[in-house]
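Two proteins follow. First one:
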Amino acid sequence: MNGHGEEGQSAFEIGVVVPRRVFKEGAESDDCVEVLVDEFRKVGLIVDRVLGFQEEFLKLASPLETLGRAAAELQLKKQTHIGMELPFQWDEAQAFVRQPDGALFSWCERFHCYRHIIYGVMNKSNSVLTLKYDSKEFHWEPGEPLLRKLELEGIIKEVFPLHDEIKRNQLLGSWALNGWDFTRQPIDEIYSYFGTKIATYFAFLGMYTRWILFPAVFGLMLQLVDFGSMQVLVLPTFFISIIVWAALFFQFWKRKNSALLARWQISCPVGASPGCKFLEMEWSSLQLQSPVELIKKWGSDKTKEKELFQREEWAGRLRRFRNDAIIILSIICLQLPFELAYAHLYEVIGSELMKFGLTVVYLFAIQYFNKIGGKISVYLIKYENNESTEYSADSLIYKVFGLYFMQSYIGIFYHALLHRNILTLRRVLIQRQIVSEVLENLMENSLPFLKYSYKKYRAIRKKRKREKGSLVGKMQFNFRVEKEYLKPSYSASVGEELEDGLFDDFLELALQFGMIMMFACAFPLAFVFAALNNIAEIRTDALKLLAMFRRPIPRAAATIGAWLNIFQFLMVMSICTNCVLLVCLYDQEGKWKIEPGLAAIFIMEHILLLIKFVFSRIVPEEPAWVRANRMKNTTQAQNVYSKQLLRSISGNEKVFASLEKIE
């Protein structure tokens, strides 16, 4: 292959779905599906046609050369062996750094190339072609993408990624079904198979689970050991230790994130803005007006350019502020009374069984509140002047988290601050944590299977009805591509056009972190429940992605983005809430006297805030080797550009000198 090396047999990675029908002989020349298959083969794709129960599936694979030439057409930037990022050239493929698994392109890059190839099939003739589908005819205009045309005509039902069975089975054995090492994960293999965003999530989850073992052991010790008169000092010590733990964890996570990006050849700093995109592969168009559009609209007058950009910037910020205010007022007016009513009922009900049942009903009911709030948030985001879909996704995260923050913690604040009943607070925390974690894991793992089973049942029922009862006995799906098509997609519960399923997984982690941190002094044992849940979560999330959902569309996000800000906000909140809890614990008479012990708690609050700030400055966000490599690559790039520039200047000087001699 032109010296570029083989990467093994090409696996089928893309599926195209069309309705199944009885094909008439002699109609091959102008049948739109036949034309599509021929065009796919002409551009170098390998096509395998599969007839399912109701649909026909076109499985697509691509030789390395076809993907390489597509990457060159896209001017896809890749890192070279001297550290510079340059547009990819197929004839110079040896100059570019390969992925950790030895492949030339990552899954994210390959999917981007596939989309460019299949949506780039156009009518290159100068005449209109007439295509047929059964008795229907339509015109294929010159320069019109064929796949997009068939989607608009309703002939192409869906285009979706396919699982690679060999790699999927390897990950099942080494990751999802590997119970020997509770927190070990093949992160590089996950990155190669799923892409950057999912690999970053599991790297964060694994590190968080390992780190949480320390406060879990400390909390278990507080539960089992009676410290007697020393108990008055143990809780403040535990409180200080978990704040230091959290501050160190987030700083070391940033270091790990930087190391992962360097290993995956991704040039995007951890502290970058949320709009930072890996390889700039923003498949959606920019929201509203870009700077170029603004100049076209308002003219190219340099004196007004700065004013125009500032006007658009502040108009966008005001729109976002307006939308945030709407969400906050909606929470206060609609959700707050519901939350306080639940907290009051929990306080007055005497039976523990009825309290447990009330909690279960409450957790089910709030799902509808959150879905309504999420839809309102998505609607409002459409009118914000966000620079990209990544900024819009972060805006959605902040708004929806505000809804969940209210419904998750307002009842607990009610028991902690108004009633100041620590025993009731502990019971609420135990029930909330156990019920919510069991309920969420049950829904996460059962709903995809139920959706898949229902789609299979409908497909079989329609098949029997179409065959008018001629089919008897048990019917099975023999082709894996059809089974994958029936599986649900990995999408978010709200705002699926902006976020994928990681939205719900990160939300679950953030709510858990807030629960265990903000009420740590009241219930130290919560860290134990969280550790056990996270150990199980690693395996269940892996199994869910590999077996229960379709292969997710790769998303190019190099960091956890807005979620890191939310975790750090919860850490600051936990400093304040735990100081109040300590006041409640040590001031049982309710007189709120500023005695030396209580004054020490308020002083401790300010010291912990200072510690959090100090650790964020002492611990660097990048390892030294990452920083050194980046500086080395920058220096090499500057040297290369300097030499090229000097050669260009010298060449021009010679030309000018020769012209002067001629004159």
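Second one, unrelated to the first:
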Amino acid sequence: MAAQLTCITTISDLPDVILSNIIAAVSDVRSRNSTSLVCRKWLVLERSTRSSLTLRGNVRDLFMLPTCFRSVTHLDLSLISPWGHPLLSPTAVADPFLIAQLLHHAFPSITSLVLYTRNPCTLRILPPLWPNLKEIKLVRWHQRPQLSAGEELNMLFTENCPKFHSLDLSNFYCWTDDIPVALESHPTVAANLTSLNLLNSSFPEGFKSDEISSITRACPNLKELRVACMFDPRYIGFVGDEGLVSIANNCPKLSVLHLADTSALSNARGDRNDEGFTQEDAKFSVSTLIEVFSGLPILEELVLDVCNNVRDTGPALEILNKKCPKLRSLKLGQFHGVSMPMESKLDGVALCEGLQSLSIRNVGDLNDMGLIAIGRGCSRLTKFEIQGCKKITMRGMRTLASLLKNTLVDVKISCCKNLGASYSLKALEPIQERIQRLHIDCVWDSVEEFEDLDGYGYGFDLNVNDGGEASSNSAGSGNTFECEEDAFMFKQQKRCKYEEVNGHANGYSGRSWDRLQSLSLWIEVGELLTPLTAAGLEDCPNLEEIKIKVEGDCRLWSKPSGREFGLSTLLYYPMLSKMHLDCGDTIGYAHTAPSGQMDLSLWERFYLFGIGNLSLTELDYWPPQDRDVNQRCLSLPAAGLLQECVTLRKLFIHGTAHEHFMMFFLRIPNLRDVQLREDYYPAPENDMSTEMRADSLSRFEAALNRRSISD
């Protein structure tokens, strides 16, 4: 019998064009690196299709600068070690012109650049080397150099980059006076700008009305504008009717407009018991909003995050829907009257049926019926955020989730008095199997407080068909609002009864959060994380990332309410590999605490205890701070607990640490990437201690790179 020849076809047999497109579609950095190790052909294809690169090496190690990424167009130099130290300066370890030429030789095709600009020499030398540069983002958390207004940006706005059209200063500390002066001094560069990001939280007061008018007048071709504003009428030059109208008149091509008060950018948490109204009203009218919306017909993304009352905005939002048909994303802060349906007739923001993302903050008069109307009218929402709305209850949020159960995958519920952790999770049961990203507050309302579904008092017939009519019928009457919720609850009743009979009842529906990949939590200082699973998040089989923000004043506590914070609770999530633990807004005593108080080192021990039990590969950690001395320093207990994370590959500490504490991390076997980032304002300037000295960081990195890594 003749031998049968078998032909095995592999992915390498594909034509180079197809294989190149496949490799180009891979976005994960480690996956791309693994791809390049398969064979030389794959190496060439991977290098030729990589368009973005972030350099993390030490500027002293110029011999290690990669020269094989000739096709890279986006280069991030803001994280080069030592972090925050000048990349190019006369006092650098190497000639700044030599470093600049080496970077240009290694990456000749750059069109997008990110720079940490602590020294003006960097702006003077580096950007002009790439004549095709189109986009630049400047980063700086340290103090501004002693230069005249606009002088620093004048070095950037040169004729050597004729294609320059995008500028991002959202993480660049400077004066608000710098921007208008520089733009007016270079009218050609300003006229070419199509994207300008000035949403910088380090601005103490934000841009005033005349400054916004000057900026928009100088940049008439802007398509994207993001600005931190001063809306508070108690300040001279606040943004009012004239400032808003000037934006629409000067920049009619805008498709993205973000206007946020500086106090909103600080992410300071409000009081859950706050009514949602401020003492002062914003000084712009509904007619002004209508005029602005009418002047921006191609608007796709709008943020108006004001920290003063904007009342009776429903009619303006109805005009927004008519005049801006392409609008897909909307965020409103301190807007009142956004949804107040009468006799089931939709109004306000509920008429913006094309929205895919909606965020509302501190809407004092929004109740359950208004929220349900939003669910009916905005039937395409994939992302929904609600913050500081006191009148919202579980019933309204649950009904909205039922109405949007086919689209909603990203939800944030924060600072709502009637929506603690358990109630928030109970409200999201209709989308429990679909949701991918979630934020809740760890306010532990008791599970026993839940009312039985039979006793909800809705007054509706639960035996109705789930026909999905509630989300599509905008002119219904009677009880159309709740038909989706009633049908879902009827099904849940039958499910719960079945589970009770079979001994599987636990107070919830019994389903898991199958698609939940990212979880964000806010928790008050001193509270424990251990009730998280009992609140309803016990089964999250695909949860990969968790972000925990701890906020409050430790000085008001003599000691925590338990021995440990409860990170061991996260062992319930088998796929968890990335964590952000943010204690940056936790305030305490960095040095010796008064009698009866704990200093921050003991609080760090409390929060980090048990972290070594988790199988984390990436960790971002913000140490707590002492604002009196502007210090965020890793303590000895924290360093000792972090070294127990034996699976870590990346560790980023957003603060400072002593050199001998950093050496603890050399005991983590597979740790590849460690960095101290003082990315908060004002970043400490004094580098005389080993916490911030460049030589100390370089010695640690050299010791880290000398180790042998198994993979």
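SUMMARY FIELD: Confidence is low (pLDDT under 50) at residues 449-482, 494-509. The chain is about 25% helix and 15% strand.
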